[in-house]
Structures are given as C-alpha cells and as structure tokens.
Specification:
By secondary structure, this protein is mainly beta. It is built from one helix and 54 strands. The strands form eleven sheets. Strands 37, 39, 40, 41, 42, 44, 53 and 54 form an eight-stranded mixed β-sheet that branches. Strands 8, 10, 11, 12, 14, 15 and 16 form a seven-stranded mixed β-sheet that branches. Strands 28, 30, 31, 32, 34, 35 and 36 form a seven-stranded mixed β-sheet that branches. The C terminus is likely disordered.
C-alpha cells in the first residue's frame, strides 16, 4: 500500500499530469482500526490557478481505494506563480540552416513568473541580469560546442515584470557540421540559475543543418548590353556541383532568378545598392539536374528602367525556402550596360557573341471590345468578347512550353485588387504576326461591390506584355454590383424538364434520365452562392442507382475539384471530403446500366462545415496543401524523416471517425513508422493506431472503431536517411449528421 496525490483543475475538474509522480509507502503494516502518520512531499503544478488536491491510498498494481468505495481526502489549493517561469509566445526557428550560418530570429517571451526580470541591475545591488541563451544538442542529446567569436546570448531590452511580454533578437549560429540537431533555448539569471532548472519549460526545436556542398553550382560567364525596361534572354550554363538533385516540380522547385545592383560609385550609391525592376522573373530549369549534371538553357531577366552601369547577379533559388547564396553557394555576377533606346550600341565583342545574347522586344498587341462591358455581379464570372491583333514580330503560341494567355488585373484607383480565382484564357489558336482573332476571355470579379478598373492584357510565362513598355493594355471601367439573392437551380444532360424533381424536397418524386444509364450523363446544381461543404448525399428513391458516378465541385464554374468517385455502385451514394468553398456541384455518370435502367435521383443533400486547419513540425506554411483537393500539390517535411515529426489536423468541429487514409503523391514518401493519435480538445491525446515493430512499408490506410474526434495527429516514429515524409491528400472516414436537402429550385 502507498499514499499518492492527484491534482485537478477548478472548475473543469480535469486532471493535471505532472512530470514527477510522488507516492509514499507505509512505515509498517496497518490493521483495521489502526492509524499511521505519513509525511508526503507534494509537487505543485507549474501553471498558477485554483486546484483540488486529492489524497488517496493505492494498492499498487491493483486499484485506488476510491475505486472500491473509500472516500479520499480532497483539499482546495491556490497555486501561485513560481519565481522563474517563461513562456515562448513566438519563436520562428528555421527548420534548415547551413553550417556556420548566422540567422537572426525574433523571439517573443512572456514573464509568467512572480519575479521581475532585470535587464541591467544597478552596480553593487547584488542582483543579476536575465538573458536568453541557447545550445545545440545532437542525436545523442549531447551538447555541441560553437566556435563563436562573440557572446551569442540575447539581452533584455528593459526590465520585464510579471505578466509582461518582450521581443528579443537572437542571433542563431548553426553548428559547424551537417546533421539533425535540437535547438535548446532557455532564459538564465546570470550566475544564479537557468529557468529550466527551476521548472520552466525550455524551447526545443528540430533543425536540419546542411553542408554548403548540398547547393554548390557552377555558371558560365557571359557579358551583356541591353536596352532599359525590357525583358532580356541569355543562354546560361549551370552544373550541379552539390550532392542533391535539383527538382523542377513539387512544392519547392529549383529555379534561376536574378538581382540587379547599381555598379556606379558616385558617392550616393554603391555596388551594394539593390535596384528594383518591374518584374521578378524566375526561370524553370529544363529538367531535373542530378549531381554532376550540366544544363544549358535560355534564362530571362527584366532590365532596370534607367540607363546606366549595373551588376547583374544570377542565383538558383529553392522556391518558398531559400536562395542558394544563403548557403554560401556561388553566384554568377556580370557587368551590364543599360543603354537608352535608339542610342548607338558598342560593337559586339567575342564574349557577347559566344554568350547567346538575344534581346527580345516583340511583345506588342492591340485589344478592343466587340461588345460593351460595363458591369457584372460580385460573385458571378463573366466572358468578355474581344478582338485581338498581333502587332509584334513573333508568333503567339496557344500551347506548348510558352503559351500566351489573356489575363486580367483589377484596380481600385491605382491600388491592385487581388482576385481569386485568377482566371487566364488560352488563345484558341496560334496567332501569327499581323493576324487578328475574336474570342471570349474569362473574368472573375472582386468580392466587394464597387467601381473598379479592369485591365486586360496578354501574358507569357510571368511577363505581362504591358510591362515590356511596347504594348498598351485594354483598361475598362467596370461596376461590380451586389448580386441579387438567387435560389437553387439545376440542369441535366438528359430529360431537363423533370430536373426539378431531384431537388423538390419530396423523396417520393424523382428525376430520371429517360434513357438507359451510360457514361457522360450529368446533373449540375448551382447553389446560388458559395458555401463551405464537406459532404454530398445522392439518393435515388430505392431504384435507379447510378452504376458508377463521380462528384466534382467548383467555386466559380471554371475550376473543378473531384471530391469522390464510386465504381460498380448498387445504392445511394455518400461522399465525404475535406471542406472547400463550392457554389456548383456536378455529378457525372461513369457506369452503364445492365438491363437498360434509367438513372434516377430523388434528392441531393449537402453538409456544411468549418474549414480544416493544420500545423506541422516541418514546413508548417505548406500544411494546407495536404487537403486542397489538388493531387499535384503536397505537404512535405523537406527533410529526411526522423522521430518526432508531426502533422496535426484540426477539423474545426467534432466528428465521429472510423479511419484515415493518406496519399503521398508521385513518390512513396509515407512514414517509415507512425503513431496515430486523436483528441477532442487538442490537449488529452489518445493513441488509436501505430506501426508494427518491423516498421511501415506502405501508404497509411487505417480503420478502427467509431470514436469522437476533432484533432488528428500523425507522428513519425522512425528515421530515414534520405526519404522525406509527404502528404498529397488526406481522407478522413467519418459519419455525417444534419444533412441539408437542397431547396426547391428552377430547372434550366
């Protein structure tokens, strides 16, 4: 028998789990009616507040006395803040650094203790300053020494009293060797104690330190002369001198970009002054470049708009992560003379001729309306009738590697207004110099009604023709009107006169196709406005079930996302998926009837839901790509797998789930080992599945007994030397309640 204690929060009555569990054994056997006195050390919770402290006897390995009907001793205790306690409110530690790289990171720290942190105590006071320090730990949890020439501890900007918050600029110096490390950050009262030794939790973050050799590159060495404010193409040769392949696809493709610097040194500006240009062009590599492999391709940049002497710097960039020069990789720098248009150019030299320089000034278009366009509704896309003539010297391709599109830009005054989706209309055919065509361009309006300027222009790659200063866009004054309230409408490929029976609210009336089921039949509903939905239910009234079907949804009627597919179907159809904004629902028949039965629909229902959110231990900014309904995008750890990597999904509300499936994209980057945990409050986690002891060798597809869940966490429990972890789509098997049948609409 032993005496133990438990802490419970007031008023939630939730148990507080402490790091150290204290139990005291009896000094001797205690018979019935006998008594004994015990001294029990009690460890208080670290968070201040009001608690209930429960004392109870425990028969080890059997049960607590209260479980057998004995009444425990309960006492209310107020826990005050400890002297030393810090909370890290914000600490954006990068998940990758280069060896010996110094990275400035702003930490936000709050004093949750009872003692004021002194920034600079008075001389002779005997008090000590508080500073933030850090150390690096290797995989064996051993401290890694840093060869720093200066003190890397961060000082407080001022005295910080209890409850106050402050920002600290921390200079993080990476270890001098590559590998996986843990950054351990803590506050110190200099010469007295560390906060962690007094019970305050330190900040720990996993960081991958990469050797500079991972990103080494060799360039050619050309020289250029070009006119101002124009796109400019030149042949560039690069060689991968690192030990990693540069991929052209995926969430972080490698591209070639450029920066411009003023090369004059006239006392006002120096060669370190960055010169902004009208267009930041990132050039895709022609193929994946393996270590030791070379690539020669035409790269484009955009010249400054003022004549003068410049220094052009080329560097490779891992999109969304870093420039190669951040890791001390070589850049290509070359002098550039920008000469006014019409001014005589110096004669070409041998180095210019050998560089393949080809200035391009062939972007010139004439656009005009063929029908007036002055207004549109705020949530409805439209098509503008255009006449387009190629006044340039080169053909505009409708397809291939460099297609030309008609794009739109919105402005309120001179301020650009972002619009989603950004619709671009492909040309119906290649347009030769001097040729004119007429066609319709798609446009989507801003969300807020009002008066705007709509600009129509052609775009090739990332180059708008108007930015080249040789073409004039078409600007229109457009009133975006508040859309009138709309009811539901429905259209069908077959028997449209009876389409309304699928949404009339009567389960005993049905629409049927009037012909035997065959692939290509469809039913489409317009909800009248965007709604966030996560499930569809299609019932056929007990007969005429689709032999197979696919469901798609769209927010604008142009871009569609597949949300479910059912083959060899014999009943009503339910599709559940990650929430997304939808106005249009399209259900397509993919099967063929065996005995000539028509396809029938008695009712269509939807389920509205809160949007999902997710966080990840690595690449958290890309976590949403795991449920964006786009199979070509994915979340990736972008680092080899290691125990402790996590991906946590918040479904916005509680659901009853029975399973989970993760798709991993084109590469089999599933976790080598895993734990699946669930929670309803984001705090008390329960494990429902884990990988076998031999590891995991296939994509995750798990099922289990129904359980209420809001939060789902997948934790990586194994390491891989080379393979990262990725998720292209996450599917949660769950039941759906509170269906909303679509209201009566008007068939069209």
């Amino acid at each position: 028998m032993r005496l133990g204690v438990r802490w419970y929060r007031v008023p939630t009555n939730s148990e507080v789990l402490l790091r150290d569990v204290v139990r005291v054994g009896l000094p001797r056997d205690v018979g019935p009616g006998d008594s004994v006195t015990l001294t029990l050390p009690v460890l208080a919770p670290f968070t201040p507040g009001v608690y209930n402290l429960l004392f109870d006897l425990i028969e080890e390995g059997v049960q607590e006395f209260r479980q057998a009907g004995s009444k425990p001793y309960l006492q209310t205790v107020t826990v005050t803040a400890p002297p030393y306690y810090a909370s890290f409110i914000s600490a954006p530690v990068p998940d990758k650094l280069a060896i010996d790289q110094v990275k400035s990171v702003r930490f936000t720290v709050r004093n949750d203790g009872s003692k004021t942190w002194l920034a600079a105590p008075a001389t002779g006071s005997g008090a000590a300053p508080v500073r933030l320090a850090y150390t690096w730990l290797n995989a064996q949890n051993e401290s890694v020494p840093l060869h720093a020439s200066r003190d890397l501890r961060a000082s407080l900007p001022r005295d910080i009293g209890p409850g106050e918050t402050c920002d600290l600029n921390v200079e993080l110096l990476a270890p001098d060797r590559p590998g996986s490390f843990t950054l351990h950050c803590d506050l110190l009262e200099e010469g007295v104690t560390s906060f962690a030794d007094m019970g305050s939790p330190p900040l720990r973050a996993s960081v991958q330190v990469q050797g500079a050799q991972d990103f080494q590159v060799t360039f050619g060495d050309p020289l250029t002369i070009l006119p101002p404010a124009t796109p400019f193409s030149m042949n560039v040769k690069i060689r991968n001198d690192g030990n990693k392949t540069w991929y052209t696809t995926g969430p972080h493709p490698v591209k070639l970009g450029s920066h411009w610097f003023d090369a004059r040194n006239d006392g006002a500006r120096t060669s370190d002054t960055v010169v902004p240009v009208a267009l930041d062009i990132r050039n895709p590599l022609p193929f994946d470049v393996a270590p030791g492999q070379e690539a020669v391709f035409s790269a484009q940049t955009f010249a400054p708009d003022k004549p003068g002497r410049y220094r052009l710097q080329w560097s490779l960039v891992v999109e969304g992560m870093l420039w190669f020069y951040d890791l001390s990789a070589r850049v290509l720098e070359l002098p550039v003379q920008v000469t006014p248009v019409g001014a005589p150019l110096p004669p070409p030299t041998a180095s210019i001729l050998s560089s393949g320089v080809q200035p391009t000034m062939a972007y010139r278009a004439a656009l005009k309306l063929t029908q007036p366009f002055t207004a549109m509704e705020h949530d409805t896309p439209a098509v503008i009738s255009l006449s387009l003539r190629n006044d340039g010297a080169r053909t505009w391709a409708a397809g291939g590697d460099s297609p030309v599109y008609v794009g739109t830009q919105w402005f309120r005054g001179s301020e650009p207004v972002p619009v989603q989706p950004d619709l671009r209309t492909a040309l119906p055919e290649d347009v030769q110099p001097g040729q004119a065509i007429t066609f319709g361009a798609q446009v989507y309006p801003p969300e807020t009604p009002g008066n705007y300027t709509l600009r129509l222009d052609l775009i090739e790659g990332e180059v708008w023709f108007a930015d080249v200063k040789t073409s004039i866009p078409l600007d229109l004054m457009v009133e975006v009107k508040q859309a009138a309230p709309r009811g539901l409408t429905i259209s069908t490929s077959h028997n449209p006169e009876a389409a309304h029976l699928a949404i009339d609210g009567n389960p005993h009336t049905t629409w049927d196709s009037g012909q035997p089921m065959e692939p290509g039949m469809w039913v489409q509903c317009d909800l009248g406005a965007r709604r966030t939905i996560d499930a569809l239910f299609i019932t056929s009234g007990g007969r005429g079930f689709p032999a197979g079907c696919e469901a798609q949804v769209s927010a604008d009627g142009f871009a569609w996302a597949a949300v479910g597919r059912r083959e060899r179907n014999w009943g009503d159809v339910t599709f559940t998926f990650a929430p997304l904004a939808a106005r249009y629902i399209r259900i397509a028949q993919t099967g063929r009837s065996l005995a000539g039965e028509p396809w029938q629909i008695a009712a269509i229902a939807v389920h509205e839901a809160a949007p999902w959110q997710a966080v990840a231990s690595h690449n958290p900014n890309l976590a949403g790509l795991a449920f964006d309904h786009n199979p070509d995008t994915l979340w990736t750890s972008a680092a080899p797998q290691e125990p402790g990597m996590t991906f946590t999904l918040d479904m916005g509300a509680q659901h009853t789930i029975t399973g989970l499936t993760l798709e991993n994209g084109p590469r089999p980057e599933y976790p080598q080992g895993y734990r699946l945990m669930i929670a309803t409050d984001g705090e008390d986690w329960q494990e429902v599945a884990h990988s076998p002891e031999t590891g995991n060798w296939s994509p995750l597809s798990l099922t289990f007994d129904p359980v209420p869940v809001r939060y789902i966490r997948i934790e990586c429990t194994a390491a891989s030397r080379w393979q990262p972890w990725s998720i292209s789509q996450i599917w949660v098997l769950r039941s759906v309640g509170e269906w909303e049948a679509l209201a009566v609409g008007v068939a069209r």
